[in-house]
Amino acid sequence: MGKWAVVTGCSHGIGRAYAEALARIGLNVILISPDTENLKAIASNIEAMYNVKTKVIKLDLSEGLETYNVIEKETFGLEIGVLVNNLGMSYPHPEYFLDLPHKEKIYMSIIHCNVVVVTNMCRILLPQMVVRGKGLIVNVASMVAVLPSPLLTVFAATKAYVVKFSRDLQIEYGKHGVIVQCLLPGTVTNHTTESPRSGWMVPTPEKYVQSAIRTVGKENVTTGFLQHSVLIGIMKFIYRISPSSIIVWMINIMEGNRNNALRRYIG
C-alpha cells in the first residue's frame, strides 16, 4: 500500500499492537497520540526490533484545527499507505446521561476524540491514497455501536458514527483502490491492573490484531475476532426475538460496572 503507516492512539492496547504488527511486515510507522512521552520509548523499541523508521507526532486535542495542520505538515511528502484510527475515549465509568460528573467537558472530549479525530485523519491522508490508487484505512469503533448501550450513550453514539462514516467512505473510494474497514471489537485486555484477564472471549491486543489483519479485504465491517462475532450474532438474534431481555441484561451489566467503579472511588 505504501512505505509508511499511521496509527493513532498507540501508547497501549490495540493501537500499539497494530503499530508493531505493521512494523513487523516492514512498514515505517508514524505514531500519533496525546501521550508522546510514552510513544518515544515505544518508537525506539519498534526501530530496534523491526529495523524500520518511526516518527512521533503529538495530537493535542485542546488546540482545535491547529493540531491537524501540524499533522498535515509532519506527514507531507511521506508515502502513507495505511491509516489505523484507533484513538478513542469513553466514560470514566458507565453512568446515566445526566448524572456523569463534569459531563459538559467529558462529552465534548469524547465527541472530539471519537468523531473529529477520525474524520480529520481521513481528510488529511485519504487524498494521497486516491492519487496512488491504493491504500488501507482501519477505523476502530466498538461492539457497543451496534448494540443497546445504556449508561454509555454518548460513547456508543460516537462509535456508531465511525461505523456509518466507514461504510459510506468505502462506497465512495473503494473504486479508487482504497479499502476502508471498520472494526467492532468487544473486550480486549490492555495489560493494566483493572483490565480483564485474557481468555477465550477476551484476547490480548496482539492476538486481536493478528486476527483482525486477516479480515482486511474480506470484511468491511467486522468484529475482527471470531468469538466476538459469535457473541454479537447471538445478542442480535435474541434482540430480534425479545428486545426487552437484551436491554434489561445490558442495563444490569452497566449498573454493576457503575457500582463497582463508585465503590473503588469511595475506597
UniProtKB/TrEMBL annotation:
Keywords: Membrane, NADP, Oxidoreductase, Transmembrane, Transmembrane helix. It comes from Heterotrigona itama. GO terms for cellular component: endoplasmic reticulum. Signal peptide: none annotated. It comes from the Eukaryota. The keyword NADP applies. InterPro entries: NAD(P)-bd_dom_sf, SDR_fam, VLCFA-Steroid_DH. The chain crosses the membrane at residues 138-157, 237-254. This is 17-beta-estradiol 17-dehydrogenase. GO terms for molecular function: oxidoreductase activity. Belongs to the short-chain dehydrogenases/reductases (SDR) family. It holds the Pfam family adh_short.
